[in-house]
Amino acid sequence: MVSVFIVLTGGVVRVTGSGLGCPTWPSCDAGSFTTTPELGIHGFIEFANRALTGVLILAVGWAIVAARLQKPLNRTLTRLAWSQFWLVVANSIAGGISVLTGLNPYVVALHFVLAIALLTTTTLTWHRARQAILEPTPRLAVVQRKSAILSVLLVSTTFVLISIGTLVTGSGQHSGDSAGVPRMGFVWAHVTVVHGVLGTLVLVLALVLYGSLRTRPETSLARRRVVIFLIVTVAQAALGLLQANIGVPAGLVAIHVLGSALVWVGVLRVLLDVNPQLFRTVGLQAPVEAAVSIHR
């Protein structure tokens, strides 16, 4: 939840022009690690986003401790929890570099992609922790090859869609600060069209995947995941079309950034439930037998 919320606050920093509200890093201003009255509302917004990183570190620390306390030791969960820590560190450094470079749009895009990587590890951690509780003994997983391939294509295309979204934002009017921040050298209308085409492709792939799962009763959970993903993605697409046609208002842009995080979490849930053998919990100190077969 915190990893999703920090994506939203990052969007708020951008659309309010508060990206340089704290003009230095790691301190907020010369001689002060916190915001000062002189920095105004922009300093407060930027510092609040930085402070949320502290909350995120506490959450990640709790995840690491909880994973280490599992009996028997679950090495998969432990590694995933530690990967969250290192991604938080990497993203903090990327955020600092973005400030020190005057909000270079490519560094800002990297900052967002690293946030998506963190969402990936937190989603995997939550999924496997829940699986370890509900299904301590791995069951036989029968995966139809067509559905498996479609789910991988869906995730890959969704990642490209989100990545192109950073180019749309990096070429648009919300630079992250009221000062003259350099923008990416793309024509905003052109990358927006590419983004829209990719969004349509994602929806088509999700529909085809649902069709491949429909005739198999044991895939009811996977089908529900696809339906939820379709609903979230359609809402995100409608929001994107609306904001593009009414002048890209700041509020809708922030919600759209949040929507991209929800779309990514949703597509990962689809992948994991279509392919229950992926990222299977391994490394338990107690013996666990698992069998996986691929149905052609």
Tell me what the structure shows.
The protein has 296 residues and is an all-alpha fold. It has helices spanning 2-15, 40-68, 75-100, 105-134, 145-171, 188-213, 220-245, 250-274, and strands spanning 141-144, 292-295. It has a two-stranded parallel ribbon with strand order 1-2. Helix 5 runs antiparallel to helix 8 (250-274). The longest helix is centred in the middle third of the chain and has 30 residues, at 105-134. The two termini are 37 Å apart. Residues 282-296 have low confidence and may be disordered.
Features:
single chain, mainly alpha
Overall pLDDT score? 85
How many DSSP E strands? 2
| Terminal CA distance | 37 Å
Number of DSSP helical runs: 8
**Radius of gyration, rounded?**
21 Å
Strand order of the largest sheet: 1-2
Tell me about the largest β-sheet.
2 strands, parallel
Q: Portion of residues in helices?
A: 55-70%
Beta content comes to: under 5%
Structure classification: mainly alpha
- Poorly predicted segments: 282-296
Series of secondary-structure elements, N-terminal to C-terminal: HHHHEHHHHE
Global geometry:
flat
Please outline the helices and strands.
Layout: H1 2-15, H2 40-68, H3 75-100, H4 105-134, E1 141-144, H5 145-171, H6 188-213, H7 220-245, H8 250-274, E2 292-295
Parallel strand pairs: 1-2
Helix pairs in contact: 1-2, 1-4, 1-8, 2-3, 3-4, 4-5, 4-8, 5-6, 5-8, 6-7, 7-8
